[in-house]
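Posted in: Protein Modeling Q&A

I'm a second-year student putting together a small comparison for a lab meeting, and my supervisor asked me to include a predicted structure for [Ribosomal protein bS18]-alanine N-acetyltransferase. I've never done this before, so apologies if this is the wrong subforum. The sequence is pasted below exactly as I got it from our records. If anyone can share the structure token output, I'd also love a short note on what stands out.
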Amino acid sequence: MRWWDIDRVAELDTVLFGPDTWTPEFFWSQLASPVARMTIAVEVGDGLCGYVGVSVAGAQADILTIGTAPSAQGRGLGRRLLGHAADSARDAGAEVLHLDVAADNSAALGLYRSFGFDELGRRPDYYAGADAIVMRAFL
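Accepted answer (user: helix_wrangler)
Welcome! Here is the predicted structure, written out as tokens:
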């Protein structure tokens, strides 16, 4: 992701996650971070279709955010973004990938389970109206 993508990514994040959204300032902080982070914005034509952010610290990596535009959902873009993030984390030396997902997001849960993610635990009321499921996959 480049700095000029931030406003569009933040707008899409708001559409997808409402009150749990990241601010443009937070995306800026991720882009400027000296920690090994890869954030990818995917575009088709002039439209932003999806993004993913991953943080790597030694053998541990975390999916910080991932989202696909409603018009792009169900077409395999989330799978490609997650695969790219996992590959990037593995290439940076990570052996384990973690993420949090809203317990009521059945589409995302299905995707993550198909990638080999297992549930580690829950964070009650982490999101507006939903618990977070903490998941882990070995790379």
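A couple of things worth pointing out for your meeting: The chain has a mean pLDDT of 91. The radius of gyration is 14 Å.
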